């Protein structure tokens, strides 16, 4: 008899925890994709396609939220990561960034790619389309060179 009672209590606690985490996540997670978008050229058409595929899911207001981001607590973690990424660099705000800072950001992006820091490995595991292949590297290197940016990917 005691075992059934303990099981029912545990189930009740679990249900309350799920409901509570749902409401907490609704409070803590702000608007997912603000309306601002940038449709201009960042560094060049082909290179922009690569940046869009590899970077925009976290570093823009155009995040494609997978189904599991609607799960309580998981959405807090992923939304926090995306928010941090947007705080560092948000391509949706590209036109409001001064030209000299844009150059610094592009240098930073290429440096992170060059040192295999971006996109993060954990992200690439769940998003194979974000992996950068040799052809992508060639396009980025050519574009960087045309902009006077030193980019020598491994």
What is this structure, in a nutshell?
The chain is mainly α and 154 residues long. Helix content is 56%, strand content 0%. The model has no long low-confidence stretch (mean pLDDT 85).
Any chance you could write out the topology, listing elements then pairs?
Layout: H1 2-28, H2 45-54, H3 74-88, H4 99-114, H5 121-126, H6 134-146
Q: How would you describe what is shown here?
A:
By secondary structure, the chain is mostly helical. It has six helices and no strands. The longest helix is centred in the N-terminal third of the chain and has 27 residues, at 2-28. The chain is elongated, with a radius of gyration of 21 Å.
Report low-confidence residues grouped into runs of 5 or more.
Answer: none
Main beta sheet, described?
Answer: none
User: Helix share of residues?
Assistant: 55-70%
Question: How would you spell out the order of helices and strands?
Answer: HHHHHH
Overall average pLDDT: 85
Please give the count of helices. 6
Q: Strand portion, in percent?
A: under 5%
Radius of gyration: 21 Å
Shape: elongated
Termini gap: 65 Å
Structural class: mainly alpha
Number of strand elements? 0
Identify the notable features of this structure and list them briefly:
single chain, mainly alpha, 56% helix, elongated
């Amino acid at each position: 008899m005691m075992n059934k009672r303990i099981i029912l209590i545990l189930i009740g606690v679990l249900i309350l925890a799920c409901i509570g985490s749902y409401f907490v996540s609704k409070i803590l997670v702000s608007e997912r994709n603000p309306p601002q978008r940038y449709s201009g050229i960042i560094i060049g058409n082909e290179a922009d396609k690569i940046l869009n595929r590899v970077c925009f899911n976290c570093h823009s207001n155009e995040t494609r939220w997978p189904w599991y981001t609607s799960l309580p607590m998981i959405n807090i973690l992923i939304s926090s990561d995306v928010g941090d990424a947007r705080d560092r660099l948000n391509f949706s705000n590209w036109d409001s960034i001064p030209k000299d800072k844009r150059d610094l950001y592009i240098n930073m992006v290429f440096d992170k790619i060059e040192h295999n820091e971006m996109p993060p490995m954990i992200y690439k595991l769940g998003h194979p389309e974000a992996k950068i292949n040799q052809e992508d590297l060639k396009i980025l290197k050519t574009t960087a060179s045309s902009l006077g940016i030193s980019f020598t990917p491994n």
